[in-house]
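Letters spell out the chain; the tokens describe the backbone. To illustrate:

===
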Amino acid sequence: MSENHHTPPIISEEDALRLAQAHYGISGSLTRLPGEIDYNFRIRTKTEAYLLKISRPGAHLDDLDFQRQMMEWVSQKGETLAAPRILPTQQGKPYAVHETERGPCQVRLLNWIEGRLWSAVNPKTDALRHSLGLAAGKLTQALQGFTHPLASRSFDWDLAQAAWTEQHTALFSGEQLEIIMYFQERFRTMQPAYAQLRQGVIQNDANDNNVVVSEDLTDPKVVAIIDYGDAVHSQLINDVAIALAYAIMDLPDPLGATLPLVAGYHAEFPLQEAELEALHTLVAMRLVVSVTKSAINRTKEPENEYLQISEKPARALLTQWRAIHPDLAHYAFRSACGYPDHPSYPA
């Protein structure tokens, strides 16, 4: 998700098929997919499937190159994790250019990762949440050592920069306002310790439409976390918080649902005790960013339903999360990772 709300030009299915044929030599059945910035299409030929992404006018080529390099890095390092790859045009280039009346758009073709989106899976079991934790931990591990100049950027969806939401509290009232301000205050208070936590380039957007689950109906597994458009250099623990924020929506016991995911992540990429102490507040701040973005978007693009897709469940989860004592969550996270429940227990 991005802070840019310019509406891109309409790209029809006919346009998409024509571009795929012209630049990649492929044709087949086409399905439009949701997306906030890019126009996304799945193309199925008789033998293969692809993801066609057409950017909005004015997209920076450096941003696209950042994503390309990150995909290539994960493909090489994440041996057991499926990762999207950008496929070259017939001229051997990483993208093609489509001229529109509002400016040029970049056209990219990616391999299609077979499976179901997390949002379409039901039921979502503890075993599946554990699998998501494993996949997220593998992705963090695969990204170790990856750097890019554009990773350190000003970005509203970077949890480390979430204090910007304090400028928009007037969009809320009543209990919702109290909850949001409560977590903003906790986030403000924890800044000295938070600044010392491990950092690196993170995927930063493991939402329920970016997690791909296998087709197996009896024992489904997470096979990939896709879409690196929100990648940023930030605290590593943010990726856990973001995955949790979406994986525990619409559940009666959200804290209990976090534990398999935290345990799975820790098994692949061990979490430090100080990171677990920040996790409860970080989950909340992802939700605060989400509902604030939705409130802003509603005034800018009231017709764009995709931009408000997570608002109601995010608001509901914030209310549930406020009722969970931070110490209880902290101790539960520690236990899930095999640490003594209380930090002072050995003493």
About this structure: The first helix runs from residue 13 to 24. The chain has ten helices and eleven strands. The radius of gyration is 20 Å. The CA atoms of residues 11 and 39 lie 7 Å apart.
